[in-house]
Design a protein that fits this description.
This protein is mostly helical. It has three helices and no strands.
Length: 64
């Protein structure tokens, strides 16, 4: 993924979140939860792009 497309995706996500926060009436607590979830998702997405994905995490087995 090129740097320009990465910046475009981040700008689009930011504008969508701004629109949601500015124009959709919601309880402030729900807006905060939504913002945190989106930020976590974007950070994980960026880490997967720059660190080569989470392929090694998928191979971890828990239990028997």
């Amino acid at each position: 993924m090129s740097l320009i497309s990465l910046v475009v995706v981040l700008v689009v996500v930011g504008v969508i979140m701004w629109l949601v926060n500015a124009y959709i009436p919601m309880e402030p607590r729900i807006k905060n939860i939504l913002n945190v979830v989106v930020i976590i998702f974007v950070v994980l997405w960026l880490l997967s792009i720059f660190l080569g994905g989470f392929g090694s995490i998928a191979n971890i087995r828990i239990g028997r």
